[in-house]
Design a protein that fits this description.
By secondary structure, the chain is mainly beta. The chain contains 2 helices and 8 strands; from the N terminus they run ααββββββββ. The protein starts with a helix and ends with a strand.
């Protein structure tokens, strides 16, 4: 269902997301449903400023639907929760 209704590729949407913030790196993304529409959601970071952003791209036309204000990096000691090591944590 998702693949047939998606007009924009994951790669093309990630390139659009990456153009929203200078000096950025995409850490991850996924295809999902946002308010009934197919969207790509990416988590993008600027390592120089130690900030992160969530960018939502329309899966049908490739336009940016939402860009969060920056998240700031929290300097915490690495923690282990449920066998997952967490080094980066972000605050809104």
């Amino acid at each position: 269902m998702f693949k047939e209704n998606t007009k924009v590729s994951f790669t093309a949407a990630s390139e659009t997301a990456q153009m929203q913030i200078s000096n950025d790196t995409i850490l991850g993304g996924h295809l999902g449903v946002t308010q009934g529409y197919l969207t790509y959601t990416y988590f993008v970071v600027d390592p120089n400023k130690q900030t992160g952003y969530r960018v939502i791209i329309d899966g049908g036309n490739g336009k940016v639907l939402y860009l969060t204000r920056s998240f700031t990096r929290s300097f915490q000691s690495p923690t282990r929760t449920a066998n997952v090591l967490t080094i980066w944590s972000w605050r809104i």
